[in-house]
């Protein structure tokens, strides 16, 4: 019996999965199969061929998926984020490293079985960077992919290592065996900035202060921001993150000069975000109560990254700058939500 070719999304019930399923279900002909420990959000089940509830570490479940479907493309979103990972580092390692390894091995096997490489889209993160102090952060400018690769969180270490595992699977897998096995995984990664969605809220991240501030204000709830007002890291509106993932996944491989790319959109301070939130929601009750530990994490992340290679190789171009993200996406969409 022939298997149906599909796109597989792991961690599909998380904040990126929501928009990715919506977008892929309208733009791609191929059916979508999803996997997560949790059910899909209401309204999404009808957009996927099948949702599996289970773990990326369950090899029996992965075998079941392979028996039924031919996987052409994987969006491997499942991860424990940077704050969550500091509370449970071993769990983060298991999910982020062992889980990624299991999915790469899965992609490798699948690529071998149908004779062409499986595109493996891997969301990495600005957490892969670790700038030693605020002076160095201020002087760093737009940080390039190969600079400051010294993360300080378990999640950052896991993401950086996940990138290296992907590159290994793409180019060097079992390099001493007689039959060449490398190249059956077409690994493509993006180092995402903090993401801000009008629809979903992240959980367990350290860039969460911006989306939390906006969603709290929209619901009329008070919010105490856990970082200093002058804290600056890169952010991006969720629709641009989703477009970028799809664009890189579909990009002509011959144009890609690297496996992992920075992308950037805007870099407001926490105070800049608070100011537009106050303007949009004049009754917003925003304050600051610095959590020195989480502050310490974002202080190691760059204020801006250099995404010129993504722009050149596969035409990355965000639609939303800071003003547009709020005026044209976040505020109007969030008003409909609450
Ligand atoms: C986090 O804060 O952990 C994530 C990220 C920047 O990757 N949002």
Automatic annotation (TrEMBL):
This is NAD-dependent epimerase/dehydratase family protein. Belongs to the NAD(P)-dependent epimerase/dehydratase family. GO terms for molecular function: L-threonine 3-dehydrogenase activity. Residues 7-263 form the NAD-dependent epimerase/dehydratase domain. The lineage of its organism: Bacteria, Pseudomonadati, Planctomycetota, Planctomycetia, Gemmatales. GO terms for biological process: L-threonine catabolic process.
């Amino acid at each position: 019996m022939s298997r149906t070719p599909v796109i597989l999304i792991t961690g599909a019930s998380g904040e990126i999965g929501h928009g990715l399923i919506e977008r892929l279900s309208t733009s791609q002909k191929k059916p979508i199969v999803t996997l997560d420990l949790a059910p899909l959000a209401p309204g999404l089940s009808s957009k996927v061929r099948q949702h599996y509830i289970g773990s990326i570490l369950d090899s029996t479940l992965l075998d079941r998926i392979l028996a039924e479907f031919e996987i052409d493309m994987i969006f491997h979103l499942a991860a424990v984020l940077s704050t969550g990972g500091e509370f449970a580092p071993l769990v983060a390692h298991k999910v982020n490293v062992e889980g990624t390894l299991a999915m790469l091995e899965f992609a490798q096997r699948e690529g071998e079985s149908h004779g062409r490489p499986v595109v493996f889209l891997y969301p990495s993160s600005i957490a892969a960077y670790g700038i030693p102090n605020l002076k160095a952060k201020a002087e760093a400018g737009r940080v390039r992919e190969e600079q400051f690769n010294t993360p300080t969180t378990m999640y950052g270490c896991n993401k950086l290592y996940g990138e290296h595992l992907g590159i290994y699977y793409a180019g060097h897998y079992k390099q001493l065996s007689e039959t060449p096995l490398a190249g059956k995984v077409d690994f493509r990664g993006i180092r995402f900035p903090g993401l801000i969605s009008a629809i979903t809220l992240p959980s367990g991240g350290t860039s969460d202060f911006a989306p939390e501030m906006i969603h709290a204000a929209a619901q009329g709830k008070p919010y105490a921001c856990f970082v200093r007002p002058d804290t600056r890291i890169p952010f991006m509106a969720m629709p641009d993150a989703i477009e970028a993932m799809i664009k890189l996944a579909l990009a002509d491989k011959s144009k890609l000069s690297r496996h992992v790319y920075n992308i950037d959109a805007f870099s407001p301070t926490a105070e800049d975000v608070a100011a537009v939130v106050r303007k949009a929601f004049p009754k917003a009750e925003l304050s600051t109560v610095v959590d020195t530990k989480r502050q310490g994490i974002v202080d190691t992340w760059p204020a801006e990254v250099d995404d010129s290679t993504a722009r050149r190789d596969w035409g990355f171009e965000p639609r939303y700058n800071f003003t547009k993200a709020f005026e044209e996406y976040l505020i109007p969409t969030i008003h409909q939500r609450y």
